[in-house]
Amino acid sequence: MRVLILGGTGLTGPHIVRGLTELGHQVTVFHRGRTKADLPAGVREVRGETADPPPGLRRVQPDVAIHMWALTENDTNRFLDVFRGHAGRAVVISSCEVYRAYGKLHLAETGPPDPIPLDENAPLRESLYLYRDRKELPAEIALSEKILVEQALTAQSELPVTILRYSGVYGPCDPYRRFQAWLDQMDASDEIRIAEDYARWRASSGYVEDVATAAVLAATQDRAAGRIYNVGRPEAPTTAETIEQLGRAAGWQGRVVAVPPSEIPPDQRSPHPHDFSHHLAIDTSRIRAELGYCEIVPHEEGLRRTIEWERAQPSASQ
């Protein structure tokens, strides 16, 4: 099978490429050249702007086109214009940030907490561009909107599409370094203090190699066409539980202490307000039942690999 991946050199992309090549598929990666990735021998690389794929990519005639970096409605429409009639199917990476619960978490929407876990039919956000005013983010991220990406994909039927809603992805090479601050605190103290509401907040996540497996399954099974899947671990621990799990994997003997938000030093508080009564815990039973998805890396091993990589990076204080 011929597979074309738009992106493919970031966090999950190289694992998807390796998974497909190990199955014997012909893989072409179209990327911007900004991230160096260790791709398997025999993988063809083409450079360009993934937000604006050139019509010449049609010559690949992929059986499946995987779009890792569809951030805006315009990105998505250009992708559809290029590949409608020239690709058999598409797999597009989205995010669980499309759910209404995420908008409520960020105070962009109001109302009581939505029931959890959130399945693929849970209400979606009406609020758009939650990151528009986040000056610390790259412009392409600040102006991204997966709600509009999904709407553009589902509004057409000429190119069969599978949408994968990733939960928070962690692992080696994580550009957000999700565990860095906690590990630095573990190095400095035998106690980590977090706000009570944040300590109770539940969120789903997935280890990078596991999450990549979902894209491989979606690309190689025709039954995935037209379906939307949540992707992540089956459980959604609280923040306090997540830190405790990380600490055990790191050999930390300390404890996590939940305190009133007012006791958190100002320099340790998020500059962006949240309502942590709105959890981002997702239901991943659909992809498990329909595509046979399951984790391939034990949870403790995934944490250990992530910690090992983090330890090799400069700390926040350096």
**CATH homologous superfamily descriptor:** NAD(P)-binding Rossmann-like Domain
The N- and C-terminal alpha carbons lie at a distance of 47 Å
Please count the beta strands (DSSP E, at least 2 residues each). 11
Q: Into how many domains do the coordinates divide?
A: 1
What keyword list fits this structure?
single chain, about 325 residues, alpha/beta, Rossmann fold, 7-stranded parallel β-sheet, two-stranded parallel sheet, 11 helices, 11 strands, globular
Describe the protein's architecture and organization.
With 318 residues, the protein is of the alpha/beta class. It has a single domain (2-309), classed as 3-Layer(aba) Sandwich (Rossmann fold). 31% of the residues lie in helices and 16% in strands. Helix 1 (13-22) packs across helix 8 (208-220), helix 2 packs parallel to helix 5 (146-154) and helix 9 (239-250) packs across helix 11 (299-311).
Give a topology summary.
Blueprint lengths: L1 E5 L6 H10 L3 E6 L12 E4 L16 E4 L5 H11 L5 E7 L4 H6 L33 H4 L3 H9 L6 E6 L1 E3 L9 H9 L2 E5 H5 L4 E3 H13 L7 E4 L7 H12 L4 E5 L25 H7 L7 H13 L7
Parallel strand pairs: 1-2, 1-4, 2-3, 4-5, 5-6, 6-10, 7-9, 8-11
Question: Can you summarize this structure?
Answer:
The chain is of the alpha/beta class and about 325 residues long. It has helices at about 15-20, 75-85, 100-105, 140, 145-155, 180-190, 195-200, 210-220, 240-250, 285-290, 300-310; strands spanning about 1-5, 25-30, 45, 65, 90-95, 160-165, 170, 190-195, 205, 230, 255-260.
